[in-house]
């Protein structure tokens, strides 16, 4: 088994000797037994926390590099007018503490998330039209996880039911 032990950040396709295609739910794990796209047994032994991003390279103990590919999986893309309606949609969905991908294409701006009837209903209440389809899901990393941000910390939130709540976070800088 090839042991992948180091995150390299984005790498060119020709840098890697193999690829590993994973859905989002497996790209959030630091420990994983998997099989590369060419059939080679792999083990991930990485720091926990950061999501494996599409195009990210992982270095093995022997120096080989394996490139991560985001799998095509079921998603919901919510579209609404740009400007305040799109900002409002992103805010209210994000306030549910779910992972969201944001983007734009020839049709305008969109918010993407895994299928979830509660989120879909909320998006429709906010005027969005929904498209159920298969695509990669590579959500926003969050402001504190941006490359070169120089600031790193985590918050632990656990919410088992829907409710309004306020958060107070104190940071010493």
UniProtKB/TrEMBL annotation:
<keyword id="KW-0963">Cytoplasm</keyword>
<keyword id="KW-0143">Chaperone</keyword>
<dbReference type="Pfam" id="PF05194">
    <property type="entry name" value="UreE_C"/>
</dbReference>
<dbReference type="InterPro" id="IPR004029">
    <property type="entry name" value="UreE_N"/>
</dbReference>
<comment type="function">
    <text>Involved in urease metallocenter assembly. Binds nickel. Probably functions as a nickel donor during metallocenter assembly.</text>
</comment>
<dbReference type="InterPro" id="IPR007864">
    <property type="entry name" value="UreE_C_dom"/>
</dbReference>
<feature type="domain" description="UreE urease accessory N-terminal">
    <location>
        <begin position="1"/>
        <end position="66"/>
    </location>
</feature>
<protein>
    <recommendedName>
        <fullName>Urease accessory protein UreE</fullName>
    </recommendedName>
</protein>
<feature type="region of interest" description="Disordered">
    <location>
        <begin position="134"/>
        <end position="173"/>
    </location>
</feature>
<dbReference type="InterPro" id="IPR012406">
    <property type="entry name" value="UreE"/>
</dbReference>
<comment type="similarity">
    <text>Belongs to the UreE family.</text>
</comment>
<keyword id="KW-0533">Nickel</keyword>
<dbReference type="Pfam" id="PF02814">
    <property type="entry name" value="UreE_N"/>
</dbReference>
<feature type="compositionally biased region" description="Basic and acidic residues">
    <location>
        <begin position="157"/>
        <end position="167"/>
    </location>
</feature>
<dbReference type="InterPro" id="IPR036118">
    <property type="entry name" value="UreE_N_sf"/>
</dbReference>
